[in-house]
Amino acid sequence: MKHSSRRVSREFALQGVYQWLFTGVSAAQVLKNLSEMEGFEGADAEFLKSELKGTIGDAAALRERLEPFADRKWDEVSPVERAILLIGAWELVHNPEIPYRVTINEAIELGKTFGATDGHKWVNGVLDKLAAAVRPEEVARGPRERGQESKKPRQRKNGK
Fold first, then answer.
1. N or C terminus of the chain: which is more exposed, having fewer CB within 10 Å?
2. Model pTM?
């Protein structure tokens, strides 16, 4: 299945933030390294650059926002989950045009693909709490009031 350019961008952003966590190199250097990887042309370059530079540049403040919602110490969180949380937190805090549910669902998918067995469930819980704190009105409105249609209920075979 072919992923959207935004999904590809988030996957590269995850790899970039992970790289940054271990090396501490600049966002510009991380972006250069990523650009040499296979599949990079499938990413939305501007979105990726924004995600990467924003997440790395704001990492300390994002960590401060995330820590109260985590049930473990930051240093005990796997580097993959840390990277996913930082990216998700950056989107929630700095990209209100992206619905919070989209951000959280994308983080869950990253966790399922790259994280530990149940890491995506933990990431979901932490980002849900952060979303309620930084976007309380959007979270309170729910999907129908934001103009998003929820899935129609499936009909049973007997027509009910």
1. N
2. 0.86
